[in-house]
Amino acid sequence: MNHLIHIELDRLEGTLLRILGLVERRGFFIDGAELYDLGEDKRGLTLVVRPREPSRSLDTLGLQIDRLYGIKRLSADPREQAPTVTALPKAKQEISV
After folding, report:
1. Could you tell me if 46 and 30 are in contact, meaning their C-beta atoms sit under 8 angstroms apart?
2. Residue 70 contacts residue 10 (beta carbons within 8 Å)
């Protein structure tokens, strides 16, 4: 069974390698990864992971990810939570003379 993990990374040297290495060393396959920009000093990473064995716990992996410096686990994709601004149609203005 595949699981999605959304992570916010600081733009520090080696951050991406640390997170990928941790996931693999803890007994999970990385079936997909998407890296995207979250601003000047942050990046977002969405991982699709699958345990190598049924005994591997996704909760334990999450707690281990939380302990890494410069990395913050997110509950949902931050790109979907961004507020959407839609333009309202301009009202017709009547001019009376």
Report:
1. no
2. yes
DSSP letter assigned to residue 27: T
- Residue 84 gets which letter from DSSP? P
pTM confidence score: 0.72
**10-20 per-position pLDDT tens digit:** 888 888 899 99
Contacts of 28 by beta carbon, 8 Å cutoff, 6+ apart: 49, 50, 51, 52, 56, 61
Instruction: Tell me how far apart the alpha carbons of residues 38 and 41 are, in angstroms, rounded to a whole number.
Output: 8
pLDDT band at 76 (very low <50, low <70, confident <90, very high): low
In 3D space, the residue among 55, 53, 73 whose CA is nearest the CA of residue 63 turns out to be: 73
Amino acid type, 6: H
